[in-house]
């Protein structure tokens, strides 16, 4: 599959449009279903060679049609196959009806299904298109399969997982593996869907890339393929001033560690110089801990205005351990007035909780200069209406927030979403669970700042920082601390 298409994420609605366009172009829709079902059978035999019996659950739509094709292929391969149907198979339409007619085995009602030791369940009930809670009969069977502790292979997406949001609709199978076709759906990447899908196999069933590109949106998996060309290029003539000068604000004397983590991460991530702006009372503590990071005292707007006279200082990180909300608001307004690029994190975000528009308004005009890095708790402080709208996916929330703030939004979590005001969205999938540790977010803010200081476009700077953060977490391993995470950051030349 073409690398650009391999990163594409499509919603269930977009996938439906892709399927229709493929049929209109002259491709046989049943041939596509045949390839999909054959792929499911191949994965089942490869992943579960010792299965005593394959129990195929077929739904009332095309996902069920894939199941009937898989059941036929498994039987032809000599496997023991039992098929259970939701609803009456005789009422199937189109390709699903053709697939059922080509399966010559018996089909039992779903209510007769009784999983037992040695079974592998192939879930072809609903797939990614589910938009309502599963019926009670399906919820009961999901519970029975869980009690029996038998593996589940899901077709497209575990039944019960909403393909657009990743949420569970009443109940959902927990699959050991999932087979999907052509492109990932949001439900494969957003939690809890990602954890319920298990290992994911994406099969190319023959839909041309031009059709995928025409009907897909602007969602991609965050990977170097998306932003590698925007990375800084090292040459023999490079020096520290070319690599940019990052500035990080420190908090008061009792809360300086978070800012130092950001500053140190920024230096490690490639900024040529990093300066920590420290209140006077915190300067001795910061000075005792800093070596390569420079230190300057700033105790108010007048001091900051003097710093801003140096045009080379164009990227700032404000928020980690910062504390004072009123000072944060004053500094942010001053940075915006001087057209600086700003990574706003932690306390910097919370400073605007009572009046988010006071933040958005100062960055509303001109090119995008703001990066927001909230976790869910911080997100609700700036975007309470978006956070409370249960119809929105995490992708929807981040995209709407980016448009409202005229900033790039990094909505953090195990399924971090990066969104730009122009509608582009990336979903990150390389972050290990042990990144959820104190100081990890401070490190991320520093990496984003370093990328911006080096002149990267703002969306690509944010996306590549999130990816490098995840890669460093994998390299540092379980039990990492923020300090070891910084040490595990690789250089740009190591990004594949």
Automatic annotation (TrEMBL):
It catalyses: (6R)-NADHX = (6S)-NADHX; (6S)-NADPHX + ADP = AMP + phosphate + NADPH + H(+); (6S)-NADHX + ADP = AMP + phosphate + NADH + H(+); (6R)-NADPHX = (6S)-NADPHX. Binds 1 potassium ion per subunit. K(+) binds at residues 63, 123, 159. Residues 15-213 form the YjeF N-terminal domain. Keywords: ATP-binding, Isomerase, Lyase, Metal-binding, Multifunctional enzyme, NAD, NADP, Nucleotide-binding, Potassium. Residues 223-496 form the YjeF C-terminal domain. SUPFAM superfamilies: Ribokinase-like, YjeF N-terminal domain-like. Its cofactor is Mg(2+); K(+). (6S)-NADPHX binds at residues 62-66, 127-133, 156, 258, 321, 375, 442. AMP binds at residues 412-416, 441. Transmembrane segments: none annotated. Its EC number is 4.2.1.136, 5.1.99.6. Belongs to the NnrE/AIBP family. In the C-terminal section; belongs to the NnrD/CARKD family. Catalyzes the dehydration of the S-form of NAD(P)HX at the expense of ADP, which is converted to AMP. Together with NAD(P)HX epimerase, which catalyzes the epimerization of the S- and R-forms, the enzyme allows the repair of both epimers of NAD(P)HX, a damaged form of NAD(P)H that is a result of enzymatic or heat-dependent hydration. Catalyzes the epimerization of the S- and R-forms of NAD(P)HX, a damaged form of NAD(P)H that is a result of enzymatic or heat-dependent hydration. This is a prerequisite for the S-specific NAD(P)H-hydrate dehydratase to allow the repair of both epimers of NAD(P)HX. Homotetramer. This is Bifunctional NAD(P)H-hydrate repair enzyme. It comes from Shinella curvata.
């Amino acid at each position: 599959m073409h690398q650009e298409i391999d990163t594409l994420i499509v919603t269930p609605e977009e996938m439906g449009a892709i399927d229709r366009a493929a049929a209109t172009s002259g491709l046989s829709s049943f041939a596509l279903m045949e390839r999909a079902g054959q792929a499911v059978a191949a994965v089942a035999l490869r992943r579960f060679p010792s299965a005593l019996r394959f129990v195929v659950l077929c739904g009332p739509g095309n996902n069920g049609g894939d199941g009937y094709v898989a059941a036929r292929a498994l039987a032809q391969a000599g496997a023991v196959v039992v098929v259970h149907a939701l609803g009456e198979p005789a009422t199937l339409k189109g390709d699903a009806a053709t697939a059922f007619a080509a399966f010559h085995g018996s089909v039992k009602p779903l209510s007769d299904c009784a999983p037992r030791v040695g079974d592998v369940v192939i879930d072809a009930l609903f797939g990614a298109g589910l938009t309502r809670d599963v019926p009670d009969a399906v919820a009961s069977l999901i519970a029975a399969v869980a009690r029996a502790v038998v593996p589940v292979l899901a077709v497209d997406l575990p039944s019960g997982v909403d393909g657009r949001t990743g949420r569970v609709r009443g109940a959902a199978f927990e699959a050991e593996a999932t087979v999907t076709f052509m492109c990932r759906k949001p439900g494969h990447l957003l939690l809890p869907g990602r954890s319920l899908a298990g290992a994911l196999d994406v099969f190319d069933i023959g839909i041309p890339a031009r059709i995928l590109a025409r009907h897909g949106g602007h969602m991609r998996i965050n990977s170097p393929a998306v932003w590698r060309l925007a990375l800084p290029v090292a040459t023999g003539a490079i020096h520290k001033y070319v690599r940019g000068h990052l500035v990080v604000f420190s908090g008061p004397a009792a809360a300086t560690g978070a800012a130092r983590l950001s500053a140190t991460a920024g230096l490690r991530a490639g900024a040529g110089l990093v300066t920590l702006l420290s209140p006077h009372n915190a300067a001795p503590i910061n000075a005792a801990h800093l070596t390569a990071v420079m230190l300057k005292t700033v105790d108010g707007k007048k001091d900051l205005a003097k710093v801003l006279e140096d045009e080379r200082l164009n990227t700032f990180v404000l928020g980690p351990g910062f504390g004072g909300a009123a000072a944060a608001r004053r500094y942010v307004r001053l940075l915006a007035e001087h057209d600086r690029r700003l990574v706003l994190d932690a306390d910097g975000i919370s400073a605007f909780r009572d009046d988010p528009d006071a933040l958005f308004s100062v960055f509303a005009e001109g090119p995008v200069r703001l990066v927001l890095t909230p976790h869910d708790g911080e997100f609700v402080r700036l975007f309470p209406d978006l956070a409370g709208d249960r119809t929105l996916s995490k992708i929807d929330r981040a995209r709407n927030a980016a448009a409202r703030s005229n900033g790039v939004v990094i909505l953090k979590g195990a399924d971090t979403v990066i969104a730009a005001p122009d509608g582009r969205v990336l979903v990150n999938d390389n972050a290990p669970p042990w990144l959820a540790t104190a100081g990890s977010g401070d490190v991320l803010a520093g990496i984003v700042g370093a990328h911006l200081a080096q002149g990267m476009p703002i969306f690509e700077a944010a996306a590549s920082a999130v990816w490098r953060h995840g890669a460093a977490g994998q390299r540092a391993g379980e039990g990492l601390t923020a300090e070891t995470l910084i040490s595990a950051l690789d250089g740009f030349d190591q990004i594949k």
